[in-house]
Please model this.
Amino acid sequence: MHVAKERSETNARWLVVGGGVMGLKLADELSQLGQDVTIAEAAPQFGGLTSAWELGDVTWDRFYHVTLLSDSVLRRQLESLGLEREIRWVETKTGFFADGRLMSMSNTMEFLRFPPLSLFERIRLGGTIFLASKIRDFRAMEKQSVESWLRRWSGKGAFEKVWLPLLKAKLGDAYRQTSAAFIWAHTQRMYKARRSGAKKEMFGYVPGGYARILDVWTQSLSDRGVRLLSGHPVNHVRRINEDGESRLEVDFGDGRIESFDNVISTVASPLIAQQCDQLSDDEKAKLIAVKYLGVVCGSMLLNRSISPYYVTNITDTWVPLTGIIEMSTIVDSDGELGGNHLVYLPKYMIDDHDDLNEPDEVYKERCLKTLEQMYEHFSRDDVLAFRVARAKYVAALSTINYSTRLPPIVTSVPGFYALNSAHILEGNLNVNETLHLGEVKLADEVWPDFLARGGVAAGGMRVG
Ligand SMILES: Cc1cc2nc3c(=O)[nH]c(=O)nc-3n(C[C@H](O)[C@H](O)[C@H](O)COP(=O)(O)OP(=O)(O)OC[C@H]3O[C@@H](n4cnc5c(N)ncnc54)[C@H](O)[C@@H]3O)c2cc1C
Model:
């Protein structure tokens, strides 16, 4: 924890915009600092990308989520909510669908036998992953494209047979603009996960999924006096100087206007540019320039399992999916899913891709047809429920030299802060990185700026 928790005597009024995990984390930290906090979420419920929905008779996350043993900030957060000791840890297996065959890639021996590659190509592939795990400074990686870095170390064969299909599956055509920091961050997370476990891949979840975490978290915030507003989209934020007093006026639409001393927006960068007209042209240009990956993700409840693998990676280019995620290899089917099986079918793409708006029925039909071709035993008659979730702004794309073009967190509008997951530099998007970023940037940038503007009372807070 970076900010010492000594309560202020005069509370400033803070508005946190966006009720995803970043917004909840910031509201949590600020309330512990004795501030007067409101959190406004546009959707009817809190949680953003982690929020849940009903699929048939089951309530579970709209998008698949697992926790790693190495997710220390998230585990600390869960501990503070009394949920950490409930996490169920499960050993997982990884599959690969390559050359029309499904195979296991869950350990080193299986990796070394991976049929599509020659022995030499496998050695170069293994060496590349090992090298990425040893590199400490992401800045060297973000200067070069992911394609050129992988070609250099893995060679043509392994690149074209393994990396290229995986990059296309994960990033679509956006892989061409992506830096090598992407593969570096991914490798670091997986290596860390294994280092902190017994060399096995262990993934965890809280019984009840994120719906339960969010219920407990929002209740705890409300108990501590945080005002939680769902169904409250923030349209505009404007600094007003009137009668010798300066404040931020927030327009929630439908004539609802309220004043705050400080506003932290956690929503996607291009949306922040629209929220505050008073930002400078340079700030707006930087916010709009952040490109995002979006996702369309099928959720399917079945009465039988389709594979023993949590993730099945796909290198066959005819398969129009990023991967196949069988959540019920981790989540207890009887306890949580009414004895059924839960499979996610995601397809990631750049935020302005037309397919993000593809009708649900078209996406569903493509998924079912694909599964019928991939798995002999799969039948659409086994599908009990199918829903399609989509999100335009999932993760900021780590383009070449991304860190040098980031918009500022402390903006030129006094008291208006722009702090969202686009500031994750040394990792790929996940809840742990998001919470860590919120904690660190609040302590290192937002809070010192607030103090410098005179926003603290006697006996106030210090930053450690
Ligand atoms: C398919 C998928 C799989 C994932 N798997 C994992 C995983 O296994 N493990 C893991 O740790 N992480 C995973 N993640 C990542 C995780 O979900 C994110 O790291 C996290 O949810 C980001 O939270 P956030 O608060 O930054 O953003 P968001 O959740 O996007 O929150 C932003 C919020 O702002 C709200 N908003 C937007 N505009 C306005 C407005 N004008 N006014 C008010 N509110 C507004 C939105 O409705 C939203 O609730 C996954 C994500 C996806 C999409």
